[in-house]
Design brief:
With 794 residues, the protein is α/β, with parallel strands linked by helices. The protein has 20 helices and 12 strands. It has helices at 25-32, 51-59, 110-122, 136-141, 148-151, 162-169, 196-203, 212-227, 258-274, 288-303, 310-340, 348-369, 377-421, 430-447, 455-465, 467-476, 482-561, 564-685, 691-756, 764-768; strands at 11-17, 20-23, 38-45, 78-84, 92-98, 125-131, 175-181, 188-189, 192-193, 231-235, 279-280, 284-285. The protein is rod-shaped and about 195 Å long.
Length: 794
């Protein structure tokens, strides 16, 4: 909620020191502290006409602004009193009391002209205070209004025709209130009574004729009619008898004329109820700091010999306000992200959602607080600063996650590392125990909450650092065969490939989310900027339509009164207003088209960048495929060598076996033949012996013959069996070779897919691997198939 300002009394805002106008820093400091919109009421008039009395009444105080009782002017420069607005909550009423015009002590009227111009430029309601009725003398005293086009510029590069600038004055000139003091005459014409407003309207009528006298008569009236969009008049009777006027500020209300008090009250109520907030062209509401900037800009222009220019003042104010709007927006973003974000976030998407909300709010704050952002430079600067803050938050999120995960790993896995150091797993079956403990600790790690976006990457990095320890335990485990160890190595490679693929997929997902965030951020800037441009366009159209309506209204009055020449000039002004209106609309359309064109160029550049990245990616894919083919050829050659070696080894083993069997067979046959020869020789000498001995030897001979025949059959069966086993082993080796070859070739394909950045698809292994590819931990667990998503690696 904006704080209210409480000033005990007025302070000098613009000092007039020896004809030089200077800004009072103390007053500027007060203005800079007023964050509320301001309603600025300035009062100008000849010196010693009672301006300060009315200003004190508006402040709600009996005393404040200095009231003199002599012919010497008391108020010098412009004095300011800021009070809470009595009728508009959340607004501040700024009262500006000016030094009296026409003070003979000043010698010339240059100073008065600048005071008059500043009072108009700074106020939303301009009160001109004069004595008596409106006559030619009163109009002559209002000569300063005819000098406005020589003292004020609407544009920094005005047209040659000054009247075109005067038409623009309507968009930022204040409402005009004329207070007539000490009026004693009745307001009537031809016996018909008039209201104060009718009296003012009648007093501003022009005279027919082209003579110098008529032009001098018409000029101030015509300026008032053209410059001020809304006019009001108040008639105040004398407050008391003239002898008491010298101490008007000390008189009690019961000593003053009741009619005068009633008129003063009506004046104050009108100011409170109908004075608008100070507004600049484009619908820019002025608060204390903005009013401060206007004062500085105008005084600097006057001091440097230039004319105060509304356009320059608005642009100077825009520089200050837009920088402040960036600061305000970024501060809000920092504050909201600090309150809403708890680092580390579990996912990048969680952080993105919070960022988008805070970014949208920051852009809304900037759009609401900024104006005249030429070429949208300040909004681009805001986008740059928000991007830097977003990058910083992402970096802190990763660092927080990294520290958290490293601390968890140290806490969870330290018992395992200690057990490894003590040699707990350096024994038979130790690898199985090691892997079970490792799996248990991984599950414990996964169960820990709020590890952040680095959780998986840090874990995989840690596991890779322990691969040497794991391999050492595996190779020293005597319960595992070489074949089981080889299978386990392949399984670990497959797990590593799967983890790499998962990390790559997560990285790609994060990149896509970041690209999507940049696109949405860009779209949010464009959306809010487009809406603001539409609002500005509608505001500009409304202002120009208002100006045109006032001109048409004035034209109708001139036609009615028969002022053909003035009507012709006004018609030219109307045409100029319409022309400028059309030029402004064309400029806004061109600016909008230019903005859209820039957006399209940025989008096109983004597309080209993506296409170039895709082209580079395709080239990398081509190189990797060529390398894969080379690796595949080398792999096939290596496996062929291994196969030939195994087959040669089997053949040699078979040959040795056959040689051994043949040697044994020949020895046995030789022994049996020798035995048969001995038996036959014995038969020759056994003729003389008994027949029973002969029969016995013949029987032995026949048995030997049968044994030889049986041994021949056994030998042939052995040869056949060994031959069949050789063929079977050879087929098994070929089959095993083909299976391993298939596994490694498909692992190469998986690895290539990982390197090329393809997304991991569940079930991909089932497409690449046969049903016979069963990965298991021998002696530790039952055989099981790879999980969906598992990839194999060489």
């Amino acid at each position: 909620m904006a704080s209210e300002i409480h000033m005990p009394g007025p302070v000098c805002l613009i000092e007039n020191i020896k004809g030089q106008l200077m800004v009072n820093q103390k007053a500027l400091k007060i203005l800079s502290s007023i964050t509320q919109p301001v309603v600025v009421v300035s009062m100008v008039g000849l010196y010693r006409t009672g301006k300060s009395y009315l200003m004190n009444k508006l402040s709600g105080k009996e005393k404040g602004f200095s009231m003199g009782s002599t012919v010497q002017s008391h108020t010098k420069g412009i004095w300011m009193w800021c009070v809470p607005h009595p009728k508009k909550p959340g607004h501040t009423l700024v009262l500006l009391d000016t030094e009296g015009l026409g003070d003979i002590e000043k010698g010339d009227n240059q100073n008065d002209c600048w005071i008059f111009a500043l009072a108009i430029l700074l106020s939303s309601t301009f009160v001109y205070n004069s004595m008596g009725t409106i006559n030619q003398q009163a109009m002559d005293q209002l000569q300063y209004v005819t000098e406005l086009t020589k003292r004020i510029r609407a544009h920094s590069s005005p047209e040659e025709n000054e009247v075109e600038d005067s038409a623009d004055f309507v968009s930022f000139f204040p409402d005009f209130v004329w207070t007539l003091r000490d009026v004693t005459l009745k307001l009537e014409i031809d016996g018909h009574p008039l209201t104060a407003d009718e009296y003012l309207e009648n007093s501003l009528k022009l005279k027919q004729g082209t003579a110098e006298e008529q032009e001098k008569y018409n000029q101030p009236r015509l300026c008032i009619r053209k410059f001020f969009p809304k006019k009001k008049c108040f008639v105040l009777y004398p407050p008391t008898e003239w002898k008491k006027l010298v101490r008007l500020d000390t008189l009690h209300e019961d000593e003053l004329d009741p009619d005068f008090l009633q008129q003063v009250q009506e004046f104050c109520l009108y100011i409170f109820n109908y004075s608008e907030t100070k507004t600049l062209p484009g619908g820019i509401k002025v608060n204390g700091p903005r009013l401060e900037s206007l004062v500085i800009t105008y005084i600097n222009a006057i001091s440097s010999g230039n004319l105060p220019c509304m356009e320059n003042a608005v642009l100077a104010l825009a520089q200050i306000e837009n920088l402040a709007a960036i600061q305000k927006a970024t501060t809000h973003y920092d504050q909201q992200m600090g309150e809403r974000v708890q680092l580390p976030t579990d996912t990048l998407q969680e952080l993105l959602d919070l960022h988008r909300t805070c970014e949208r709010e920051a852009i809304e704050i900037f759009i609401r607080s900024s104006f005249k952002d030429v070429d949208h430079l300040f909004q681009k600067e805001l986008a740059t600063q928000l991007d830097k803050r977003w990058d910083d938050i992402c970096k802190r999120n990763r660092e927080t996650s990294l520290n958290r995960c490293q601390a968890l790993l140290l806490d969870i896995f330290s018992p395992l590392e200690e057990a490894v150091k003590q040699g707990t797993y350096s024994k038979a079956g130790g690898y199985c125990l090691f892997m079970k403990e490792m799996q248990s600790l991984k599950e414990k790690y996964y169960e820990e909450p709020r590890k952040g976006v680095q959780a998986e990457e840090i874990l995989q990095t840690y596991l890779k650092s322990k691969e040497a320890v794991s391999n050492t335990i595996l190779q020293t485990d005597q319960t595992l065969t070489e074949k089981e160890k080889e299978i386990e190595v392949e399984r670990k490679k497959a797990e590593s490939a799967e983890a790499s693929a998962k990390l790559l997929e997560e990285a790609q997902k994060k990149n896509e989310q970041m690209m999507e965030q940049k696109e949405k951020s860009y779209q949010e800037h464009v959306r809010q900027l487009t809406e603001k441009m539409e609002r500005d366009r509608a505001q500009l159209i409304a202002e120009q339509e208002r100006t045109l309506a006032l001109k048409l209204q004035e034209q109708e009055k001139l036609l009615k009164d028969g002022f053909i020449e003035e009507n012709r000039k006004l018609q030219e002004e109307i045409q100029n207003v319409e022309k400028r209106h059309q030029e402004t609309m064309d400029h806004m359309k061109a600016e909008s088209a230019q903005t859209i064109a820039k957006m399209l160029i940025e989008v096109e550049n983004s597309k080209k960048m993506i296409e170039q990245k895709e082209k580079n990616h395709q080239e990398e894919m081509k190189q990797m495929i060529e390398k894969m083919n080379q690796d595949r050829v080398q792999l096939v050659a290596d496996q062929e060598k291994i196969l030939n070696f195994k087959l040669q080894e089997q053949k040699l083993h078979f040959k040795e076996k056959m040689t051994e069997e043949q040697r044994k067979y020949q020895n046995e046959i030789q022994d049996m033949k020798m035995q048969n020869i001995e038996i036959q020789q014995s038969l020759k000498y056994a003729n003389a012996e008994s027949s029973w001995q002969t029969e016995k030897m013949e029987k032995i001979l026949k048995d030997n013959q049968k044994m030889m025949e049986l041994r021949e059959k056994n030998y042939q069966e052995t040869v056949r069996t060994l031959t069949e086993k050789l063929e079977k082993d050879r087929a098994q080796v070929m089959e095993e070779h083909a299976r391993i070859m298939n596994i490694k070739l498909k692992a190469c394909i998986c690895q290539l897919e990982i390197q090329m950045g393809w997304h991991w698809v569940p079930g991909r292994v089932q497409e690449l691997c046969s049903d016979e590819m069963i990965v298991f931990l021998p002696t530790c667990q039952s055989p099981k198939r790879p999980m969906q998503g598992t990839r194999l690696s060489t």
